[in-house]
Amino acid sequence: MPELASLFAFALICLVMVLTPGPNMVYMFCAAQGITALVMAVPYAYDALRLAGALYLLYLVWQSVKPGGRSPFQVRDLPKDSPRKLFMMGFITSLLNPKIAVMYLSLLPQFIAPEGHGSVLAQSLILGIIQIIVSINALIVVMAGAIVLFLGERPLWQVLQRWLMGTVLAGLAVRMLAEGRR
Question: Residues 113-171: pLDDT tens digits?
């Protein structure tokens, strides 16, 4: 079982991920199984996952803070579509978009301690369940519209949100790069 501080940190990161656009959590169990098998079978797999994850986080940082970057909360005018079309678009996006798999591969390993905290699979599943619980929080769904309107009407808040997200992701990337093999 991961330490309580790690569980809370992971839950906070999951909350940030829920507040950004992306697919649902279809890949959690497969990613947990794959990470477990890979880390156990290949001695340097953890290091490769850690490096790839850090590079991906740095890419997300750049997308967030680059000149002309957009906040995920920035309101945009969209064409009107039928409810059926919107449902199908969301469903297909959830199934095909690899963002969540990349999130599990880049973030999950840094919260897993192979020695001393139980099985890697059990830790992966616990973290995945925490992520799912955070991602389906009804309060977030109910408040999402109010948050978008609040941030959309305040350009300074949009800039602060982009830089806060970029800072948190950059900190995680630096931590991942500074860590040695566990």
Answer: 877 777 888 888 888 788 777 766 556 666 777 777 777 778 788 788 888 888 988 99
86 neighbors 1 (Cβ within 8 angstroms):
no
Q: Is 116 left (phi over 0), alpha (psi -120 to 50) or beta?
A: left
Q: Which residues contact 92 (CB under 8 A, 6 or more apart)?
A: none
pLDDT of the residue at 26: 47
16 burial type by CB count under 10 A (0-12 exposed, 13-18 middle, 19+ buried): middle
Instruction: Tokens for 51, please give them.
Output: 């490096």
DSSP state of 45: H
Sorted by where each begins, the domain ranges of the chain are: 4-178
